[in-house]
Structures are given as C-alpha cells and as structure tokens.
Amino acid sequence: MTRAVSQSGLPESTRRLLGVTVLLTQLPLLLHLPMWICLPGTLLVLWRIIPSLHNRLTLPTLIMTPLVLVGAFAIVMHYGHIFNRDPCVAFLFLLVGFKYLESNSRHDASLLVVLSAFLLMTQFFYWQSIAAAISSIPAIFFIGLSLFTLQRGYAITDIRFMVNITAKLLLQAIPIAMLLFVAVPRVTSPGWGEGTSGNGGATTGLSSRMSPGSISELSKSDAVAFRVEFQGRTPTPYDLYWRGPVLSGFDGRDWFILPRAKHNTFTQTQSSNATPASRLNYTVTLEPTHNPWLPALDAPASLPVRITRNNTRETIAAITEEKQLDSLIKLTRPVRYSTESVITDRFFANAIPGAEYLLTTERNPKARRLATEMRSTYPDDAVLANQILRMFNQENFSYTLSPPKLQGDAIDDFLFNSRSGFCEHYSGSFVFMMRAAGIPARVVTGYQGGEINDNYMIVRQSDAHAWAEVFIDEQWQRFDPTAAVAPERIEQGIGEVLRSEGRNAIAQLPLVKALQLKWDKVNYTWQSMVIGFDSDSQSEMWQKLGLQKPGALTLVLLILAAVLVWIALILAPWSLLRRDRSDLCQLQWEKLCRSFESRGIARHNGETAEAYVVRLTEHWPIHKNTLGQLLAAYHAGRFGKDSEDAAAQKRYAGLMRDARKQLNQF
Fold this sequence. Notes:
The chain has 666 residues and is of the alpha+beta class. The chain is built from 23 helices and 22 strands.
C-alpha cells in the first residue's frame, strides 16, 4: 500500500494533522482579534486542508511574501503601530497561516509547530480564566501529537499508538508542570500588561464620559465587573452604591470627568448620619479594565491596599476631592484589594463647590425654564430635589433598556418628548435641573447592587448605574432619580428589568441561573488560587512548610532533583508495572535477533518475523524445526488467543528461550 504524499513532500495525513493543530491554536484568539484578521488567517489553513479547494487554485510561493507585507502594513494602519501586544499577536496569527501554506519540509513543519505553540500562549495576554485553560488543552495535545509525528519521520503509521503515547506523555508532564508553577519565582506583574493599548478583550466597563444611551448599552452585558467579600454583614440592596467615575463637567449633551487634585493621604469621611455600625470592611477582586479608577462603596473611608500574604500593605490608589478612587497601578490584569467604606448617602465637603458644579451652557432652554419655575415655587433646596423626583415618579415617565435616540437638545427632548430612558437619562436630567436652579450638583457613575453567590458577591456590567449628588446643607447628598421611576431596579436588581422587557428569559430561569453561579464559583476559585498565586503566595507556602524561601541555586537544585525522581519513577517501576504481557516473548525475540546479527545475519528494517526466520532457515536448514518451533511460540505469545494469559506467556517465553539456547550451541 502506498501513502498519499503532497506535492511538497509532506504526507497528506501529516499535513492535515498540522492544519488541525494550527486551527486549534487560532481558535481561542477569534474572540480577541478583529474579524478582518481572523478570517484570512483561518481561511489560509482551511484552503490547504481541503484538497478540493487547494487543487483548484494553488497560491504561488512568489506572491506570499508581498501578501505578508500587505498584511503587516494593514495591521500597522489599523493599530497605528507594530511593536506592541495587539499588532504583534495579529501579525503572528496571519504569519502562522501563511507558514502552514508554504510548509514544504520537515524543517518547515517543525517551525510551524513552534510558531503554533507561541500563538497558543498569546491568548493568555487577553484572558486567564479557566475557560482559557480548558480551550488550550486540545491544541496542546495536537502540538504534542504533531511533534511525535515529526520525530517518527513525519509519517502517520499507527494513529492509535501515537495518540496513546502522546496522551501518556502529557499526563506524565502534569506533575512537572505543577511543580514548576508553585516553585518557580513569580513575577510581580506580567510584562505584556505594560504599554498596551486598547482594552485587549478586557471588560472596559464605565468610561470617563456619559452620553445618552452609553450605560444602557453597557447594562446589556452579563460580564463580571468585580467580586466582593465582606468582612461581617452584607449591606442591603439600598446601600450597594459602588462609586466609580464622578462626572462634573457638562457640554450640553455629555457628562465628563473634570481634572481634580489627587491625595495620597486620606481624610476620614464625615457624615451627619454615619455611625460605627455603618463602617464596613471588604475585599474586591477587580477584573481588568484598563481604566484608571477603582470601585468602592459610598463613601470610601480608607485608601485601597493590595492584598498580600506576608502582612505587607501597598496602597494602590489616590483619592480626589470628589471621593473618586484613582488607581496608581495599571489595571491590565485582575487585582485584589481591601478597603473600608462608610455606608451613607451624604458626607460633608472638603471645600465649598465652585462654579464648575453649575451650568456653563445655554442649551436645553425648556428644561431651564421648568427648573426656574419649580425653583420659584420650592425655594428650599431639599424640597425642590424631592419635587423633581416626584415629577419623575408621578408623571408619564418610563424606565427602559432601549430608549429612543434623543435629538437636538437631549435633555429637553427627554423631559418633554420621549420621557423614556435609562439611569443616565434620569440622573443627567436631574443634575441639569438642579444646576439650572442654582444648586451645585454632579453625576456619579458606578454600579448598583450585586448578586450573592455563596460567600461573595458578584457585581456585573449589567449593574452599571448613574445617580446624582447635590450639595445641600453643606453636604453632598445622594439622590437616585431611577429609584423614583423604577424602584424594582434598586430593590431587585437589573434582572427584574430584563424580565419585564422579555430579555434574557432563558438566562433568568432558576436552573440556568444556578448553573451560572456555580460556574462563577469555579472561576472565582481559579482566579484566587491560580491566577492570584503570586510571590506572596509562594512565601506563604514556604512558611506553611516550615521552610525559608529558598535561594535561586537551591531552588534550581530542588526542581532538578524532583524532576529526576519523577522521570525515574516513570521509566523504571512504572514501565515495569504497565508492561504488556507479550513483552516476555518480545524480549526473547529481540535477544535472538541480536544473537544472529552478531553472526552477520541482521534483521532488515520492516522485515516480519516470519520472513526473517525463512532467511535464517536458508542459512541453517538443519535447524529448520527448531526455528519453526521458536516462530510458532513467538506468534502464539504475541498474537494468540491466550496472549493475555500470564501463565501462557511464561510457557511460550520458556519455549522460545529453550529454542534460542539450542540455536546458540551451533
């Protein structure tokens, strides 16, 4: 039987195996790279895997280099640069596709497998969840299978045997990988997080600007924003206001952050209704955002410190006069920190608010007139604020995740025409009217609520929210216009709104919800024990073992010793325990072959046992019967019906040994 060989010299079966390997390494990156890069990169591989496509149109080798250069130029034009994470990963994605197309030799195939391994690792630049680890397992297996194929001369002869060996090798490598994971010194932060642009697939969450419809779009995402562990009691839903960017600037349509001074020391939050019982300590595990702020319950009472396991404390944020926590570190990977807050809806200001908290635009004249009229009727600031909330509650305003697009003066259009919107519409309109009445006010964005899952709380992007703070009686007081229109949004969370609008009906089913929470628990455990395993975790591990953290040389020697012990366990007793019963006969056969090879009659490569015995009989016809007995015992012991019987194996091996000794006597 002949083996199908491609025009390049690689067997077609091997080329298809390499193609599957490349596709599996490309697959996880489809979630993170632009489609215009993913599509040609995968089509190049599919085109060569499917013979009917490749045979119709073969891509000449001479035009591949210009195509690669065009791809590199397009990537530079798209990202604006090349020496960075995202463009480099995109270029490698395309390069692997082109390399597969032009692989013509064993050397090309080996290089392709190495490039595929590098490409597979790049997915961890974007996410490090347990789903990422699971998705890489098939690719790792096929990379090992491809290497094994190339080592055997890049010909697939017995796929079942090769799969079994590859699986065993990978399983045997797991203890070594675990040892290296826990013992090799951990870096403080991954190098790929520095200097990257874009969000890279991370959940960006809230931004520094709020325009009509921005938060409602974010609220359709079920992605996790952060998780919280409370020390002590869990706040009620009414108290779960997670403070994020504070938007004090307004240009007539959009709200945005104004530059504020940052402080590295903290002044205790003073509140007229704060009590010792209202102080709360908690730990936040924040997902990557690439944004420069940290969420905290209103109002922060201490600066966040990074969680460490050797009792060291690292402050990772500064606080502005608006109680916004600005991060001092790049949030390109999950970060875990602890802080303290006072559960309150008001706190004293450090300074009298300036003119920036009043209107600086002439837009939205109708809303201005309404605010002026209401101000003349209700001169008390607090009463006026409550009357505006009463207007939202009693008049024909509705709460929806799909508000109509606002035209012209957005606030006028919302208050007098559409009257249908999300939290950003109500909070923005409320703050505008308070400013139009001459009362300092600002928009606060963040998250509201959360979902308890066992011993921690999940806060999702769908919990994104916006509310207002108004300066009354020398205090900044919280007002939530959304609660006046849709109290169920605050009491029961965004899920109630989703159900009322008929969205995500399947996701809201009890069984589906329970499965989601269990899966999140798995992810959180993975995040804490694997992704969060840092240098402090290693120090704690050595301390629990009663040892000092070893030096570099000691650590290398310990790892080498452990690896050698493990290899010895695999190569010696393990192989003996798992040896097939037929190895007893095979051992005798190999001794016979070595004996006759020393006498000048070596067995040919690929020669069957029967053909070899025929040649031996031609040289020594006098021993025809003995050679025949040896061959019969060998066939029975290796391939007979009782080849798995231990007693029969010993008997056949004994017959072969006796026959071999007789042959060695002449």
